[in-house]
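EI: anyone free to look at a 269-residue chain?
SC: sure, send it
EI:
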Amino acid sequence: MKIRSVFKAHYKKPLAVVLLPLFLLWYIWTKLERSTPVRIAASACVILLCVTTVSATAAMLPSKTSDSTQSEQVQEANAAEPTQTTDNQQHVSAQDSQNYNQQKPAQKQSASSSMATSADTANNPSQQEPVKPAYNDTYPADWKQHCNGMDMWGMDKCQSVSYTAWKVSETFGNMSKWGPIWPAGLIGHAKNWLVLAENENIPTGTTPKVHSVAVSTLGPLGFTAWVEAIDGNSMTLSSYNWNYGKSYHLHENVQLPAAQFSGYIYFGN
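SC: here you go
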């Protein structure tokens, strides 16, 4: 099938051109008389036509061969293009890999620097951002909801002395019963706490310490607060019934020395 298709494509037309003059030559020699000048002239014309046809056919055949060769060259070039593209892709991939390898040490160095900075920050507390401590109201919920009545130390609930007595018991495990505080003038009032502490040989002083009780003797009853923290020239206090509110209050950035407090009781020492 392939030979037949090649024959039809390249040799069908040239063969027809050659056979047609041969047929004419055969017709002239058979139909005309041999001695007639017409037969001789016609034969010469047919022979010349045959020569011209053969030359034209010969010129046509190389052209077909050239076209076939050119087509084969185009096919070979098309077949070679993917290889060249693949080579270019491999070259680009190699360049990308080289660039990645060049960037990788820099990334490692940057990561190492970040880790070193984090380690330095962890080892040097001065570089760390200060974390503000959370102070929570730990006063018993039942006492908050029912402020009427006395606590276990004989003091009215939701008062400053009841709250500080609770903080002393919560922190150090015990608290003396310094109540009741009513009627006015009895020993449980805040203004009497410094004297009560001295009577029980509990240390007192004028310098605040963490987890000490700040005592104010101002007013008819006085006031107590719990020292939560000290930061340089200021301190943080927590209390109940500030401004007679019978609720929790946090006093931040109380500047020292705090003249409103007469002294401090150092429970647990």
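EI: Residues 62-67, 82-87 have pLDDT under 50 and may be disordered.
SC: 👍
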